[in-house]
Write the structure tokens for this entry.
Amino acid sequence: MAFGWIDEQAELRRRAGLVRTLRPRPADSPLLDLASNDYLGLARHPEVTAGAADAARAWGGGATGSRLVTGTTELHGELERKLAAFCGFEAALVFSSGYAANLAAVTTLGPHGSLIVSDAGNHASLIDGCRLARGATQVVGHAHPDGVRKALGPHEGPAVVVSDTVFSVDGDAAPLAALAEACREHGAGLLVDDAHGLGVLGDGGRGAPYAAGLAGADDVVVTVTLSKSLGSQGGAVLGPQRVIDHLVNAARTFIFDTGLAPAAAGAALAALRLLRREPGRAARARAVAAELHARLTAAGLEAVRPDAAVVSVRAPSPEEAVRWAADCRTAGLAVGCFRPPSVPDGVSRLRLTARADLSGAEIERAVRVIGEARP
């Protein structure tokens, strides 16, 4: 029978407690949200939604084509200029998603004959980029600059080191300055995904590379997403102009994909304006994460100390993690549930995302619900 093997895979997932299902949420969900990546609470901000609506009215519901045909509007150009300026880079290129941006960056900067050195904890989009790139990939230990040096040492030719800035599972930060030093010792480029750093780290939320003193460096390229701190949709690559020009001419996920919808570009621009005007949102998101961690550990839970806005709480097993998250939902709290294969170490977790707009009472309520629902 065609696709009969799918049934076998489904049964294996069921036995392992790894079945995933979609759960559509209503527009007016009563749940306290610690599951989304809306770190700054901007996704529903009136100025952001107005930016999306105004752009849709002016430019239509979609981009109508690829960026090189009809999919580049004046809004896209404005977003690229302002995003690059905010993060401290020479140029930027906007994609339809952060995933597409990562595939583009890794595949175009890891050509045949090159070496790609990838952190073992990297996001799936970076891993998939490594798989699709024509260069050879070597995976090194998590957040391990000496491992990077060892990998780069014997290689002759182009090389790029690839890492998240803030890892999405535990919320720990990469040692960016040390990674850049290792790269420069061997003439390699550094490509980092700042999806979880933009809006949270750096002066006023300008990102982890900015905080590490790497913004604008000619050997550093950064990818970001517009769908987390900026409350919109899409992604971008930031870096030297010559790198951006290369992506325009060589990145398949740019050349052959429909451009980002104008509404998403308008929302992201509005969020950037807000962040410039209210830079304290970044520090507030970090403070909420630190308070969540402190309260959870005081309650006897095994929580990982956050470097940005992600707080991870260890669960005994995949099945218990699912039940824990479900019990939290029943009690009015939405939390993330990470299980294999989404976690590289095989340890299931509740994943909480701090938001700058959470009140003290909401933090207290979240900790109480998680504690009462623990397996």
Remarks:
- The chain has a mean pLDDT of 96.
- Residues 114 and 157 are 6 Å apart (CA to CA).
